[in-house]
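Supplementary notes for students who missed Thursday's class. We covered one full example, reproduced here. Read the sequence, then the structure, then the short commentary at the end.
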Amino acid sequence: MRRIAIVFFGMVMMSAVQAAPEADLWSRWQAHDAQSTATIDHGVFDAFLSRYVVEHEHAPNGVRYDQVSDRDRERLDDYLKAMQAIDIDRYNRDQQRAYWINLYNAATLKVVLDAYPVDSIRDIGGGLFSSGPWKKKRLRVEDEKLSLNDIEHRILRPIWNDGMTHYGVNCASVSCPSLRAEAYTGANINAALRANARDYINSAQGVSIDNDRVTVSSLYEWYAADFGSDEQSVVSHLRQFAAPALSARLDMLDRIDAYAYDWALNDESTVARVIEQGD
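Structure (token representation):
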């Protein structure tokens, strides 16, 4: 009986880890000013990203966590404090989307840096019935306490509702769409997310085909509803951003055979090994 209980507990925990939260609009954050021309300065975060993110073509970008200076940690903290002091309701939607994604990514970087060295973000801040740091209320905006999950699943996904959020928020893992080496702004957010989608889908982390067997990122399984809810809709989305050769193969095969995801930390040393193994 004890053995059965242990096995059942393990299955429950595995299921909890794999289950993705549904998009559940927090109506408090619907307020915006469509006519506003005000902008938000993300220069501090932009400088941080340009200094510590290593870009790789058609492969995950790596982060040099081990090289982040004490002064730059302070700057990241200062940026997070400044962003939390903003009255975000008075900005237009593009400014808001860039803001929320930058806030999410900056907070995630702080989470990793505070725990580093660590093999995976899922090892941080867990506890017995938790996996990863996403549920903890670690931010406060307009006097509302927010978790990373709140930002992604209760603000970004339900408000924009186009699937592109997944190419912006970064969960600090090898298989996640890459953390960009520059901050998002209201001016670049839409083009940047489209570029991210192209880079991801045309990388082995997004889509790989081996002997006509199509394997795609588990993101497209966990969040299938964001890409049209069924397999054919996901394939259509992939073709939209795929390079011509990949698009032709997806059109010919028109199916998904498997899903995969690597939760290893997107540390530059780990990413370099992944790239080397793929050569």
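Commentary. The first helix runs from residue 2 to 18. The chain has two domains: 21-201, 207-261. If anything here is unclear, bring it to office hours.
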